[in-house]
Amino acid sequence: MPAFRQVGEKQLPNPVLCMAWSPKRDLIALANTAGELLLHRLANFQRVWSLPPNENTGKEITALAWRPDGKILAFSLGDTKLVVLCDAEKAEILHLFPLENPVSCMHWMEVLEESSVLNSFYTSEDESNLFLPKLPTLPKSYSTTSKIFSEEKSDEILNLLGEVRLNILVLGGGSGFVELYAYGMYKIATLPGVPGTCSSLCLSSDLKSLSIITEIRSADNDPEICYIQLDTGLLSDCLPEVTRMARKFTHISTLLQYLRLSLTCMCEAWEDILMQMDLRLTKFVQEKNTSTQVQDEFLELLLWGQSSPELQALLMNQLTVKGLKKLGQSIETSYSSIQKLVISHLQSGSEALLYHLSEVKGMSLWKQKFQPLGLDSAAIEDAITAVGSFTLKANELLQVIDKSMKNFKAFFRWLYVAMLRMSEEHVPPELNKMTQKDIAFVADFLSEHFSENEELFDRKGKYFNVERVGQYLKDEDEDLVSPPNTKGNQWLKFLQESTHLKESPLLFPSYSQKSLHFVKRMMEGVIELCLQKPAEVIGKSVKQAVCLPLYTVPESSENTPRLFELPSLYNDKKTNMHYGVFCMPEISPCKLYLLRKFTDPFRPVPNGLMAIDLSNVLSHSIDDDAAGASSDCVYSCQDARFYDDETLTVVLRASEEENRGRVLAQLPLGSALSCEEEFNWDPSLRLDQQSGAIPVKGLVLENQWRDLENMKAQFVAVNGIRKVACVLSSNLRHVRVYEMDVEDEEDEERPESQNASSDQDGLEETPAIRGEAEGGETEGGGQRAKEQLESGEALELS
């Protein structure tokens, strides 16, 4: 028979609020009260990494969920109302999105339905790679200064897409807040009308229904726990169409993130270098004592080869020949970097965005298939137009960069020669020649950058124009200071004179007075509106099929941790069943209740509710000295989680008068589910008001349990696929991990940590924290951890 083997134990410095096993690996994620996200291995409970709280993301983690492939970990933050997707390998934040309400629970499921249509889509999904070039990786040197994203690269962003098979992240919170996100990124549905605050969620793998446990509060009575089943039949009926649409919209969301980071790289390439030129020239203008304008002084130097003493002092003392050469090279490098980013990143990303939006538009025109999902061809057309405008603005920036590079090169070359002559140094012959075109470039530069305009001074606080490239990268709503000169542009003139083409929907608007950042934000807003419509339509199609009031929560338990509390939900993918397990300690403390519903909410289920009697669940006594006394030992359930389709993992506690410890046990559900007695539910009453009529099934375990020595165990997290369990104490700091299905071993092979204290409460009351094992906490941190442990004993001993 299977036995449990302890493989790790640790006393943590901060109370744990959430814990979740990886679905694919022996890793468990923990969130604590300090706002840290921790990842530990099964073996020896070794820490893999920790993600500290961040001012920009938040410090109050409220829920955890793993993507079904185990590569992405999602967590929600209550103080900032954000959901964050984190790379499980590197502890890097890959994506985040804001919500209107804080999240109290989340569930990430994968669709397992198979069909020929879906299989053909899975194999053909990568067709875009045949038509679109691979997006280049963002420069590493520009990806480390973002306040939220550390070392984020384009390949990691694109890996957010994961597998083609549809997976959905379900989020629930207060005030009836429930939202569904395809692939964890695209909001596919907003579900209205859910009463109360969600405490647990489970979306069936066939997408037919969503089970929710809610807590409904009223002014007069205690909070009421209810089981709600929502009919999500539209998602199930249109699964191939939903998968195609969600995949495309997730591609679009990922590309928008890629464009944002590309633009951030361009801003960083410009700011640090070009602003130096701006500041140096501003300082000179403000300190000069002459009444002549700067433009005039440089023009005199250009035409006559003579300069004022102030200009000569600036050039020779502040800039210097060597400094001018270095500044010119830096500015040229900066221009080249921005130019490459526009060509390779912005244009490639925009092309991919247009491709996917065009495919979505094609879907929207197939009204028989996609109209029920709310695809709006007019909104998609507006999004395509906005992307076209963004592409035009990027091309406009390329032209400005090209012109500015010519002017800058000519200006710096001329100024370098002039400074060499001032210092009476040798001028190389190749630099001494200056054509009429070069003089025109220098004059253009002086005209554009030193045009002293009173209105400009009032707006910007400077004596000359902002650098022409930089104005496109400023995230401002104001018009461009120096918009492109369109005089003589034959195409624009033709458009203005043509009454038919002037307002043609076939032409993308150019927004010549706005910056690239402004057009990007406008594009994001239009695409966001395009993505919102399906979420609203699908959300309105979801109807409440079942609402079962279960029991009330006494006010005395309001101060206990609620994140781990029952009921817990589970979806049996083989039989297409929803399960819920819960206790009613105020009514029947020794019973565990099992609720069953088909994922098809309109299909009746036999034996939909039953109770498991835990009074004498163990076949012999835990205490070897009290052999034969098991019949006198009565147990109640502290926590219960589904291990697999046929097994429930529970933490049991002996009654108050019994001087026994806690027990970790595996309850086989086969005999309980075979109960033939039917419960007739009176819809006018809560379940706790008719609990006496619930069929009861007794269980007796042989060796499918283990005594949890020296630990006041309270909660458990399990993964039946990996056959592992993690037990958490009532003070939320003491953790043990187990391998569940192993051959029974000799007692002496148990970890020594089990006998670390002769007192049952030893580990719970141990003030010392193993700081070195936890990553080398400081002495002050250890003292704080000691105080937290001592303060947690009141909860533990209650």
TrEMBL record:
Main localization (coarse): nucleus
Annotated region (Disordered), positions in chain: 741-798
Its BP terms in the Gene Ontology are:
anaphase-promoting complex-dependent catabolic process; cell division; protein K11-linked ubiquitination; regulation of mitotic metaphase/anaphase transition
**Pfam families, A to Z:** ANAPC4 (PF12896), ANAPC4_WD40 (PF12894), WD40_APC4_C-half (PF23405)
User: Pathway membership of this protein?
Assistant: Protein modification; protein ubiquitination
Does Iron appear among the keywords?
no
Q: Which InterPro entries match?
A: APC4, Apc4-like_WD40_dom, APC4_C, APC4_long_dom, APC4_metazoa, WD40/YVTN_repeat-like_dom_sf
Describe the task this protein carries out: Component of the anaphase promoting complex/cyclosome (APC/C), a cell cycle-regulated E3 ubiquitin ligase that controls progression through mitosis and the G1 phase of the cell cycle. The APC/C complex acts by mediating ubiquitination and subsequent degradation of target proteins: it mainly mediates the formation of 'Lys-11'-linked polyubiquitin chains and, to a lower extent, the formation of 'Lys-48'- and 'Lys-63'-linked polyubiquitin chains. The APC/C complex catalyzes assembly of branched 'Lys-11'-/'Lys-48'-linked branched ubiquitin chains on target proteins.
**Protein name, entry field:** Anaphase-promoting complex subunit 4
